[in-house]
Amino acid sequence: RGADAITLDLEDSVPPAEKANARKLVRDAIPLVGRGGTPVHVRINNDSDLVCEDIDAAVYPGLSGIRLPKVESAEQIHRVDALLQAKEKERGIAPKTLTITARIETPLGLLHAEEIADASPRICALGVGGVDWYLALGVEPSEDGIELLYATSKVVTISKAKGITATGLLGSVA
Predict the structure, then answer these.
(1) Which of 87, 124, 127, 171 is the Cys-Cys partner for 99 at CB 3.0 to 4.6 Å?
(2) Would the CA dihedral through 157, 163, 167, 172 be positive or negative?
């Protein structure tokens, strides 16, 4: 009801022992949750041992895009882009249909944020992931979230300059 998108999660909300079971559910869930016309995304794991399996489980007709957490380099985007391209072809999805939303959640990712934004025309959004950002910095989140100000400001600036959406903004519904 008015959602910008619905995200099915294979990453942090799924315990490691349940990831294989969660992957089995995604294919049937995509048309179910997207039946009202809302775009459907799947948040995958950005771990070299899991990314291929997650993309294989997620890329089916009805999927709109992938949400890739903990992005630290353009190379990670290139790899996911190539996997998406292969799956689109294999499963009869129009080429370059699927988008990538990249989440910057570490200082290394922030240092490479502009390269990440430029890594693929599939990049439709860029955002900062708060919980993992705090963990990467080794700080406790303050009430006002000031620890995210620099990262969020940089990512918003890059996003606006590149013409892509900035997501997860503090104090907004983005």
Answers:
(1) 124
(2) positive
